[in-house]
Amino acid sequence: MNRFRNLKRFVAAALLVAASAVAASAQVQTIEGKVTLKQADGTEVPVQGATVEIFRTDVTQKLGSVKTDKSGKYVRVGLPLIGTYTILVSAPGATPNFQTGVRVAQRNTYDFSLTPGDGRVLKLEELNKLAASTAGAPPADTEEAKKQAAAMAAERERIEKENARAAELNVKLPDILKAGNDAFMAKNYDLAVAKYNEGIAADPEQSVFPRNKSVALTNRATPKYNAAVKAKDEAGKEAARSDLKAAVEAAEKAVANFRANKAKSGGAAGAAAPAGKSNEELGYLADRYEAYRLAFLTLTPVDNDAAAKAIGEYVEMETDAAKKNKAQALLGEALFNAGKVDESVAKFREILAANPNNVEAMRGLGISLAAKGAEDPEMLPEAIKSLEQFVAKSPDTDTRKQEAAMMVEELKGTIKELANKPQPTQPQRGNQRRRP
Questions:
Q1: What are phi and psi of 112, to 5 degrees?
Q2: Alpha-carbon distance 137 to 151, whole Å?
Q3: pLDDT per residue as tens digits for the range 198-238
Q4: 307 and 337 in contact (C-beta within 8 Å)?
Q5: CA-CA distance, 333 to 344, in Å (whole number)?
Q6: pLDDT tens-digit map of 82-101
Q7: Cα angle at 383 between 379 and 387, to 5 degrees?
Q8: What does the CA dihedral 180, 186, 191, 193 come to, rounded to 10 degrees?
Q9: How far, in Å, are 45, 46, 191, 208, 227 from residue 213 at the CA level?
Q10: C-alpha span between 330 and 394 (Å, rounded)
Q11: Which of the 8 DSSP states describes residue 319?
């Protein structure tokens, strides 16, 4: 009997040791699974490069992210066994998906089926807000619960419709873009603009369609304006200006959409591009700058404050010295047109200090100083000097030379007139008798 009791104690001790060993060796677990994308025909294809983020929610801890391989599979090892997790999955061209309340001690394989979408990255904060909004829900049989259930059903329906629309656009938009680009390359700008307008109508949040529309409009307007000038056709010039005004508006929309979409995906507008890659935002800013430049050359009415801001943003980001120098002169002109004459004078002086041969800055400084000379005649000699330099150094093909030369003569006449103008007499001082 004693031996039997000793044997039971021995077995129990052995079991305890074994249990402790198992517990010690099984404190971590692995999560794995597969990510697929649902096609229009209902089939599922593996998603390579999908991002799988894992958060431990019982202690608020981000445990990093992994990418799916070419077969759509992901593996994350070393997760504490006792935790509660949330998994967020996102991929380019797909609507994000998630799984909450994950306990790896109970199950460690989680597959995700994505639907076509905008490729946005779902944030844990969004899920937390949703959970907070549904916390403390009333009993299911109350009117309030029915209202909440109806609201949730409506929200699900809205999301499903958005996903269906995203799937349709993923097929439709590339065809529209290709048709517009093909027309643009064939210099059929009317058709190109029509196609880009079709893309804007289908998805107003896209940035590529308004950007391409702006470029197509400037390409259509330029020869139209030049031909109208040659033929002295005022109606033709106005038609070209209408195109350029629309080009500026489209370019502004393109930049705004690009920045909004970049912010949604977690990027920051104006951030430096990765090494070896072009800065996509700079391309948008350059196209907008070009639309404003042509608008200024053709005297197209635009919002001058918006122009100064847009050109300034381009100057700030441009790294090519020659392009930057040229754009700075237009920035000075934009500041002048916006009524910021002191700022335009400072900008043109800054340009000439760095590059004394910049003829655009010579002209701009002369005109800006001439404007200030209306109130301060002491500015007029410097204005004349700057305009004379422009006339001397600008090419003979520049039609503005004659205008600048005429302004010089007018300013000289103003100075001469001021010099010959009788000065007001001053009362004599000294021994003057005071009246009682």
A1: -130, 130
A2: 13
A3: 999 988 998 999 999 999 999 999 999 999 999 999 999 99
A4: yes
A5: 7
A6: 778 889 999 998 888 888 88
A7: 180
A8: 60
A9: 35, 35, 11, 8, 22
A10: 16
A11: -
